[in-house]
Amino acid sequence: MPPRRATRPTIPAGVWLTQSGDARIKVHRCGSALCGRVVWLKEPTDKATGKPQLDDKNADPGQRARPVMGMSLFINMQPAGPNKWAGRIYNADDGKTYESSVTLVSPGTLNVRGCMGTLCAGEDWTR
DSSP assignment of 50-110, as one string? Predict the structure, then answer.
């Protein structure tokens, strides 16, 4: 009988469009974790300033001048089961970080959930 090979989890590597269609996130492996970085914005320019969108809602005043484009959203997203990772996610829309899980539902659907205490919400990203 041939030796049994360990199956590697499917990594949802690639570029994903958020459910609202306002951003594309490049997801890739970084060490044992999963990383996600903003690579496209529907509205890359702040209409009020005419300059690139900034992380102006961040709770840390020192971070408010950083551009949203290129920003890392996943924080310590570690394997948590078959096709699932858990860690934290940063939401530039409100400047907060949430407990999070990411699940590869199908080759074309990535479910991203964030929780604040017992209140959770999620959305499906598509390739």
Answer: SSB-B-TT-SSGGGTTSBSTT-B-EEEEEEEETTEEEEEEEETTTTEEEEEEEEEEETTEE
Phi, psi of 54 (to 5 degrees): -115, 160
Output the six-digit token pair for 77.
């997203």
Task: Answer whether residue 2 shows pLDDT above 60.
Answer: no
Rounded Cα distance between 126 and 112, Å, is 11
Instruction: Give the single-character DSSP code of 122.
Output: E
Return d(Cα 16, Cα 87) in angstroms, integer.
18
**Whole-prediction pTM:** 0.87
Q: Which two tokens stand for residue 20?
A: 């609202």
